[in-house]
């Protein structure tokens, strides 16, 4: 039936629009370099997972926003006898910050 096909197509358009809107909203929450970079859907999902891991490390260290590279700082603290689950040794966001610091040091010296 033609009406069923039109209704199914309309539902699919609505679903696609809903998924795309959700990805757009998620993209606004993930810091990127450069800030206006448009991420693909898979990049958005991967970076969101990495950012969540990064924020979890910040919380595990109980440090504020000004903390530098919390994912790198976490491992030495575990060696002191901690029993918490080990996070990733370095995340995308700490790595990006580390690269910025190296570039800044090279430009100054």
From TrEMBL:
Top-rank taxon, per record: Eukaryota
Species assigned in the record: Terrapene triunguis
DNA-binding is among the record's keywords: yes
One Pfam entry name: HLH
Name this polypeptide is given: BHLH domain-containing protein
Subcellular location field: Nucleus
PANTHER family named in the record: BASIC HELIX-LOOP-HELIX TRANSCRIPTION FACTOR, TWIST, BHLH DOMAIN-CONTAINING PROTEIN
Signal sequence, renumbered to the chain: none
Single GO cellular component term: nucleus
MF GO annotations: DNA-binding transcription factor activity, RNA polymerase II-specific; protein dimerization activity; RNA polymerase II transcription regulatory region sequence-specific DNA binding
Coiled-coil stretches: none
Record keywords, A-Z: Developmental protein, DNA-binding, Nucleus, Transcription, Transcription regulation
Any single biological process term in GO: developmental process
Residue ranges constituting the BHLH domain according to the UniProt record: 3-55
